[in-house]
Structures are given as C-alpha cells and as structure tokens.
C-alpha cells in the first residue's frame, strides 16, 4: 500500500462546477499536509497548506481528518484555468527528507 | 520566477556524455532536493541535502552524482546515462523540516539518446 494515495482521475467537469478530491495517508505520525498544483510539463507549485481546523483560500477549501487519515480539497465555481494535476503532499516527520508526494489527481475543466 | 533557478531548461545528451544540472536558490533555505519525474509517474526523491550535508540517497544509480558546495547551490552530475533516465529533473528547496512546504525550480527536461 502506498503511503499517500490519491484517485488518479481524470476528473472531467464543466466550468462552474464544484469538484472535490480526497487523499489518504497511512502514517498516523504525519505532521504537515499540503496541496500542490502541477500544470502540464511544469513544476509543482504550492497551492495551500492544510490546517487541522480546515482552511479556505478563495474558491479553494482544504480539510484534514486525522481520525480517518485523509485530507480533501474542494474547488468551487471551477474555472478553465483550474485544469491541472493536484498533488497531495504529506510531511511525516520533522526531517527535510520525510515529505511524501501522492501520484496526483488530474482535473480537466471543460467549457 | 519562484526563487529556485534551474539550468539548463532542456538537455539532450548521448549515453557516453558527461553533463551537469545546476540549481540555485535565492530564498535563504537550508535544504535542497533533487527529484525525478518520469512521464505518467509520481515524483521520485533522489537526493536530499540539509545544511549542506547529504542526508538521503534513495538508491540512486551511481551514474547520478550530486554536489552541494553551499546552501544556495546544488548540482547533479550525469555520466553514462541510459535512455530510461530521460525525465524531468526537478530541484526544490525548503527550510530544514519542510514544514512550510517546498519551492520547486522549473526543472530540466533531459533526453538521453
């Protein structure tokens, strides 16, 4: 079993729709959580950190469920420019080498 | 511009060549990383340098040789590569502990012919 698992998709949704991704992690000692976005043939970029109480940044909402060991990303009123691969990232310790990337969920927004 | 600069952006090399990838960060971070991303595969961690010491080497073949002369610069020396080494090579930096996440460079797209 992978330490960080994501549904690979692709999710194909119409512009304006709400879409949600989940990511599960296996190590209960994981400490920090992030969502990254990667456009085709580009580098991953930090979208948002995920805090225990949940957090929102514009149309994006991230939530953490430690009991069930998953994090989620909700995108409201999706735009064409949201089309990308979304990477779930988990930091499972305090060392720089303990960051684990999920395989990514591909999202395609259609007009 | 993310604050992490990688050169070259594209590289084509023969299997007998020797080349080097360069990464420079201007963010004051003290940890730097090399990742490999092959088509349709997740990111694979190759090397981690923290405070200029190599702290992780994920069973990477010896034809890849990293060098970290200071906290702002990271190199990946390549020699006698194989076609399956063709991939996007990403450099990243963070503060030690990475609790604020990574910043990636734009990557070097390597093709081995």
Key terms for this structure?
heterodimer, A: 111 residues, mainly beta, 6-stranded mixed sheet, 5-stranded antiparallel sheet, globular, B: 113 residues, 7-stranded mixed sheet, 4-stranded antiparallel sheet, 0% helix
Detailed description of the structure:
Chain A has strands spanning 4-6, 11-14, 19-25, 32-38, 44-50, 55-57, 60-65, 70-75, 84-91, 99-101, 105-110. By secondary structure, chain A is mainly beta. Chain B has 113 residues and is an all-beta fold. The model of chain B has no long low-confidence stretch (mean pLDDT 90). Chain B starts with a strand and ends with a strand. Chain B has strands at 4-7, 10-13, 18-25, 31-37, 44-50, 53-57, 64-70, 73-79, 87-94, 103-104, 108-112. In chain B, strands 2, 4, 5, 6, 9, 10 and 11 form a seven-stranded mixed β-sheet that branches. Chain B has a four-stranded antiparallel β-sheet with strand order 1-3-8-7, with no helix packed on it. Chain A binds chain B through residues 31-32, 34, 36, 41-46, 49, 87, 89, 91, 94-99, 101-104, and chain B through 2, 31, 33, 41-43, 45, 48, 50, 55-56, 88, 90, 94, 96-107, 109.
